[in-house]
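User: New here, any thoughts?
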Amino acid sequence: MLRALRYSLYIPVIILACFMILPYVWMFTGSFKTVAELSKTPPTFTVDEPSLNNFYDPLGGTNTPGHVEGLFQRFRDTDGGFLRYYANSLFVSFSVTMGAILLASLVAYVLAKHSFPGRQFFFLLFISSMMIPWQVMLIPGYLIVNRLEMSTFASLIIPALPKAYIMFFLRQYMLSLPDELIDSGRIDGASELRIWWSIIMPLIRPALVAMGIFLFLAEWNNFVWPLIVVQEAQNRTLPLALSLLNSSLTGASTQGVLMAAALLTSLPTLILFIVFQRQFVQGIALTGVKG
């Protein structure tokens, strides 16, 4: 009886999981369906005749019934097309993630393990910046990068590096580390940067992974800021490309192209979480307990 009751508790979890995974299943199957299958009524979640035409169709653009241009045959105004946008998003997301993590961890180390006049003031200043809606900073941010005449990628990366919430998260984690580790490093003659890199960073690895996944996902999906600062077609990121693709495609015959683009766009974040899921869960759990 108790076992049956315990298993019954999994029912709501299973139902919720099914609702969450259903759109991804539809996206995955739709990416490999032909135009005829996509036009079926009612729609199905199975693929009768798998096809890669949504990615590249040799007969696309020839006015052949049942064939449309695939994903890699579009965006002719850019060298490399969709793959160029993919590379842009990877470069920007990885650059922002690594840069923001390094900067936030260095600031967190100073605020957590060093005593100096004004430490609490600076900490409260950083935390108070989290209270300001990000929408308020769009116009001042654009005016700054425009006045400094930054390149497109510099405009996408540099303003995104300061992350107060990551600094706060890492500081709370570092407060749990014993000061004796740092003192031993100083006794051995290590500089503060060496202590930060060789002692602190390995110990907070789970927290770094957790924040890295959150940050990479946020930058990978960032749409508003690139929409404001990106002027040239070759510098577009994936969210901008998907927006253009969605506005230019209509009808059931082109749904497969949209699903193919969405599938490829979702792969990096999915792979990232699968690879680092243990460190991600560990980082969240330990920070919640120790902070």
